[in-house]
UniProtKB/TrEMBL annotation:
<keyword id="KW-0282">Flagellum</keyword>
<keyword id="KW-0966">Cell projection</keyword>
<protein>
    <recommendedName>
        <fullName>MORN repeat-containing protein 5</fullName>
    </recommendedName>
</protein>
<dbReference type="InterPro" id="IPR042814">
    <property type="entry name" value="Morn5"/>
</dbReference>
<keyword id="KW-0969">Cilium</keyword>
<dbReference type="InterPro" id="IPR003409">
    <property type="entry name" value="MORN"/>
</dbReference>
<keyword id="KW-0677">Repeat</keyword>
<dbReference type="Pfam" id="PF02493">
    <property type="entry name" value="MORN"/>
</dbReference>
<dbReference type="GO" id="GO:0031514">
    <property type="term" value="C:motile cilium"/>
</dbReference>
Length: 100
């Protein structure tokens, strides 16, 4: 899982993201947390450029459980169910979640 213009700082195994690390998307959105076999896997947080964040438990790159479903302020959009990293890149989630 790599997008052109992205970067990763963290642990590797067999040349793939594996362990704890920080993945920065070309949009400057950052994932900080656990990875496995090149995908987000385990506990992690997406930090958006506007200061909002999305905490979740990931399973093979897909969200399994949201850590903090309660938000302070107005919620523009509520994500239910699973979404993939492609969904994050294809949508403008950084304006969809208020600062928690």
């Amino acid at each position: 899982m790599e997008f052109i213009g992205s970067s990763y700082e963290g642990e590797y195994k067999y040349g793939r993201m594996h362990g704890k690390g920080r993945y920065t998307f070309p949009t400057e959105t950052q994932y900080v947390g656990e990875t496995k076999d090149g995908m987000f896997h385990g506990k992690g947080v997406l930090y958006f450029p506007n200061g909002s964040k999305y905490e979740a438990t990931w399973q093979n790159g897909i969200t399994e459980q949201v850590s903090n479903p309660a938000c302070v302020g107005t919620i523009v959009m509520v994500m239910t169910g699973a979404f993939t990293l492609k969904d994050v890149m294809d949508s403008n989630l950084q304006v969809s979640f208020p600062v928690m």
